[in-house]
């Protein structure tokens, strides 16, 4: 069995003070993918940078205090990669992967965007560059009889099932028609599988992010923007997927919840 968990930690050092360290010590996951780490490795404590029993890769952003992805694995990776070959994003702290026995596991933090601003332009450039890489890594992995799992914060709610208030968000980044169409291409053209939707095609949700504003968390007024996106062979072997939603608002250590899946490999 292979258990993989992904979570946007909303600042790893801050999350550690609120409960991430305890969660990592007790998780059954074999691999943990983190996004929005927002810290240089040398600024992390040893228990976050290289916790006992874990092999780690950290991909910080060149802009301090921004972005950043990490991977923790109980099995030593055969190789690692940071970035996906696009110069603009190589040191942006948005992508890292581990090549493990039989599978490539990646941590992705896709830009969030903001309509009418340069942030949305950046998101669109990232998507345009990342799509062909998804094809490349799929084919390279297949040539070595490996599956691919790209998990993380994709910052796109794919369908109306994936956010509570979809009607009022149709013109907002994260639910724009062109973003949703791009994600459809990942599934329909490249053959990747939204593992959650394979298990639960009807929805709604389950949501993985809730705003800190208002009573979004208490009312479960959230978005499903954290995904396990896998090649078909691995997706078919997923036996369970759970959103580790905090028991109460004050028990949260991020505005996202860990999304944990187990694969019978």
TrEMBL record:
The active site is at 109, 153 (proton donor/acceptor), 256 (proton acceptor). The record marks 226 as: Important for catalytic activity. Residues 6-256 form the Endonuclease/exonuclease/phosphatase domain. SUPFAM superfamilies: DNase I-like. The record marks 155 as: Transition state stabilizer. Mg(2+) binds at residues 8, 36, 153, 155, 255-256. One of its GO terms (biological process) is DNA repair. The record marks 256 as: Interaction with DNA substrate. This is Exodeoxyribonuclease III. It comes from Saccharomonospora xinjiangensis XJ-54.
